[in-house]
Amino acid sequence: MLDLRETPVPDVIDHCSAALSIDLDIENPAFGWGGKSIGCGTDRGTWVKILFRPAGQINERMWTGEECASVLTGVSKPQLLGSVRWLDATRNLVWRADETTRVESPAISSTPEIHEEPQNLSGEWWNTLRGSLIALAGTKTTRVAVRQDLINRRIREYAGTAVDPTVDEWLPAHADIHWANLTAPNMVLLDWEGWGLGPRGLDGATLWAFSLLVPAVAARAFDLFADDLSCRSGTLARLFMCAELIRMTRNFDDHPDLAEPLIREADRLVIELAGAK
Q: DSSP strand E in 22-123: where?
């Protein structure tokens, strides 16, 4: 798989610049997870994110998220200004470039998880996050971020038949809320590629799971979304996120420091859900 951190793509940069009529600051790039995207400032004070997918793997869920999110209201997010798509037959890839308003506040972490408590998260920051997710949950969409069959597989892989994985409440969610997708001191929620319907509590469960190395922050995240995370769907969402991330630590060595607290929480949640079965 192409890694943009290691492989320059000057033809892609030139195509993007010409299509959007902008100059990109390629001397100061920001790379996405695994080098699958690159972000650059522009000469008109905006931001451009360029990413790719293999031509045979383009799907609505992951390829139209930014456009569909552009009409959301009440959510603190970058504003989409323009987009371009093109087929790269030589590499058998499809490229996408999205120009958005520039977010001046930096991402809180370079990794999805945190290892220490962020120092610039005010009460207003947490309130803006909660208000944004309440507004998002109140929208209507046909997009699906997390399917029931995936939840079934992950929970059964971890808990067998001890837990009924059937979700009874579904709401729109960002579906990738972690500390590399949140900025501070001004709270802005980045990366809207995969948003859509998920179990109630999915966003709170995701942030909580990626906060487990800092118990005070995990507790703050839980308290902020307690109504969602305490209901059955929210409890399933927490178990699903634990099982999903445990799988990533085991199969891909992602987030290895999280393995122990994830297993501890997953085991506790299995007992809780099995007892309520």
A: 30-31, 37-41, 46-54, 80-88, 93-101
How far, in Å, CA of 142 to CA of 254, rounded? 31
Q: Are residues 59 and 152 in the same domain?
A: no
| Residue reference for tokens 């507790």 | 219
Amino acid at 120: N
**Domain of 35, in residue numbers:** 10-101
As a whole number of angstroms, the distance between CA 52 and CA 37 comes to: 7
List all residues 6 or more positions away from 117 whose beta carbon is below 8 Å from its beta carbon.
214, 216, 217
CATH of the domain at 198: 3.90.1200.10
Q: What is the pLDDT of residues 243-265, one digit of tens each?
A: 999 999 999 999 999 999 999 99
Q: What are phi and psi of 243, to 5 degrees?
A: -65, -40
**Distance of alpha carbon 259 from alpha carbon 267, whole angstroms:** 12
- Structure confidence at residue 210 (pLDDT): 98
- The pTM of this model reads 0.95
Residue 18 lies in a domain: yes
Determine the 3-state secondary structure of 237 from DSSP.
helix
136 and 263 in a single domain? The answer is yes
Cα gap 198→186, rounded to integer Å: 26
Q: What does R_g of the chain's alpha carbons equal in angstroms?
A: 19
Number of domains observed in the structure of the chain: 2
152-175 pLDDT, tens digit each: 999 999 999 999 999 999 999 999
Residues 74 and 205 in one domain: no
